From TrEMBL:
The species this protein was found in: Eisenbergiella tayi
The keyword Cell membrane belongs to this UniProt entry's keyword annotation: yes
Listed name of the protein: Chromate transport protein
Pfam families: Chromate_transp
GO CC terms: plasma membrane
Family: Belongs to the chromate ion transporter (CHR) (TC 2.A.51) family.
Subcellular location: Cell membrane
Keywords: Cell membrane, Membrane, Transmembrane, Transmembrane helix
UniProt signal peptide: none
One GO MF term: chromate transmembrane transporter activity
Membrane-crossing residue ranges in chain numbering: 74-97, 117-136, 142-162, 169-187
Entry membrane topology: Multi-pass membrane protein
UniProt KW Membrane keyword: yes
């Protein structure tokens, strides 16, 4: 039964996550955290970090990770197949339709109208991750002890390095991870 649930959950994610992995994050959170309770919000945040750092699409990496956590290697295969199956079908059908009707203005209008929705989904995913990383309770509450000061510092440093210094995002992620590890180890020794 768990295999069918994994397949159907990631089939829905794969079918409705237009705009790539970041746009899929709210859908993945809805299925994995809210609906089925397979992961906590903290585990989901870790999932996003791992999916970002590993090669490949974020949604596929997430499916593989969740499938492994819930039902082992077979669960990983089933969740991943559920995630990629809609894309395979959609891309094949869309390629045929696009090649046949690419000159139509209506098709160009449809594609143009999807862009704002994709931007909104990406923004929602980013805000969800930011809130769960900065606020320890997972909700925006400016109470004593609820704000992770180190997370805010790493966020500001990362934004400065990415925007002002134009550093490679992978290098910025590695640097933040290394310095956070050093901070945690120093805090243990103190």
């Amino acid at each position: 039964m768990i295999y069918l649930q994994l397949f159907l959950s990631f089939l829905q994610i794969g079918a409705f996550s237009f705009g790539g992995g970041y746009a899929a994050m709210p859908l993945i959170q809805s299925q994995v955290v809210d609906l089925h309770g397979w992961l906590t919000m903290k585990e989901f945040t870790d999932l996003v970090t791992i999916a970002e750092m590993t090669p490949g699409p974020i949604a596929v990496n997430s499916a593989t990770f969740v499938g492994t956590q819930i039902a082992g290697p077979l669960g990983a295969v089933i969740a991943t197949l559920g995630c990629i199956l809609p894309s395979c079908i959609f891309v094949t059908a869309l390629a045929y339709i696009y090649m046949k009707y690419r000159k139509m203005s209506m098709l160009q209008g449809i594609l143009g109208s999807l862009r704002p929705a994709v931007v909104a989904m990406i923004a929602k995913a980013g805000l969800t991750i930011l809130i769960s990383a900065v606020f320890l309770s997972g909700a925006v509450k400016f109470a004593a002890g609820n704000v992770s000061v180190r997370a805010v510092i790493w966020f500001v440093i990362a934004v400065v390095l990415l925007r002002k210094k134009k550093m490679n995002p992978i290098l910025v992620m590695v640097l933040c991870g290394v310095f956070e590890t050093i901070c945690v180890l120093v805090m243990k020794w103190i």
